[in-house]
Amino acid sequence: MNEHPALPVRMKGVRGEGATKWRVVPPDNMKLKVLTQNEVLMDADVDSVTLPGTLGEMTVLPHHAAMLATLKKGKIRYRVKGQLQMGAEIVGGFVEVHKDHVLVLTNLSAESTSQTPEANPSHH
Which one of 70, 81, 85, 87 is CB 3.0 to 4.6 Å from 76, fit for a cystine? Predict the structure, then answer.
């Protein structure tokens, strides 16, 4: 079963019955999970996430190519509905990007005090 809805799209330069085709429309957001050995720090739908990569800061957007990277000490920042949010400060770890999912495996240095309740289910 397809994960994303299909919407009609008018094909450029095509007339008649074949002018409208159905195309899968990917989501405009992605799932961000931040895990430590002991807990789930975040499990949220986000527009983008910026991570402290060992080769430099990286921003991941929806539909990003699959990748695996190492992380260094720094802050995770993300956007929800266009609004910048601060996640956790980490001491390093790994990030895996696959389809519209971003998984961060890390050791936590100190939680940011500006986490939103939606991003951290333990605050509900």
Answer: 87
